[in-house]
Amino acid sequence: MLVRISTLLPWRGEPIDDVLHPSIIEQLWSAEELAAVDLAIPLPFEVPPGQVTVGGPRYLETDDGQVQTVYDTEDAPPPPVPEDLSRWQFFAAAALAGVISQQEAEDAITGPLPGPFVAFIDTLPEAERFGARMLLKGNQIFHRHHPFVEAFLTANQMTDEQADAIWRAGAALGA
After folding, report:
1. How far apart are CA 37 and CA 60, in angstroms?
2. Any idea where the domains of the chain sit in the sequence?
3. Has this prediction a pTM greater than 0.70?
4. β-strands 9-10, 67-75: how paired?
5. Contacts 24+ apart (CB under 8 A), 42-47
6. What is the pLDDT of residues 120-165, one digit of tens each?
7. Which of 84, 91, 93, 128 is the right S-S partner for 124, CB 3.0 to 4.6 Å?
8. One-character DSSP codes across the chain
9. In whole angstroms, what is the distance from residue 144 CA to residue 44 CA?
10. Crossing angle for the helix pair 147-155 and 126-138, to the nearest 10 degrees
């Protein structure tokens, strides 16, 4: 895409000084030849990390006479919350969030359950404890909205936003 240097607006193929130039001149002409007829190939815009573009492009002339593409930006929305985490993602994310220790996360893969989970299970009615332990020890996939997860969050005064952050962090670890 070419931009008129004098107006900083996109060139739509209209005649320049009564000369109708072919639309492929940006592929055929050098930057100097284009500038001689008031045209420039704008420099690309790099979206800053964590941002997204808003609206259409604008063009600005730089100090060295080039044309720069510019967009307004805003914070990017958070990634979606995955519904499921693998066993290792679940325990690793819980450790990274400080819910359990890193050693407890490692142990949870092959050994005893982490202390905060044991403490929570101990608060459940006796008839529910075995099922809760089996769920934590045997599950290979942890669902974000499973009743056990929701109950654990409530018991530990964690918000949905905190849980969503743990699930996002777990998903970011890879599969």
Report:
1. 18
2. 3-75, 84-172
3. no
4. unpaired
5. 42/1, 42/3, 42/67, 42/68, 42/69, 43/67, 43/68, 43/69, 44/69, 45/69, 45/70, 45/71, 47/71, 47/73
6. 999 999 988 888 888 888 888 999 999 999 999 999 999 999 999 9
7. 128
8. --EETTTTEE--S--BTTB---TTHHHHS-HHHHHHTTEEPPBPP-PPTTEEEEEEEEEEE-TTS-EEEEEEEEEPPPPPPPSEEEHHHHHHHHHHTTSS-HHHHHHHHHSPPPHHHHHHHHHS-HHHHHHHHHHHHH-SEEETT-HHHHHHHHHTT--HHHHHHHHHHHHHT--
9. 40
10. 110
Q: Which two tokens stand for residue 94?
A: 């819980």
Length of the chain: 175
Residue 133 structure tokens = 């332990």
Structure tokens at 124: 């459940």
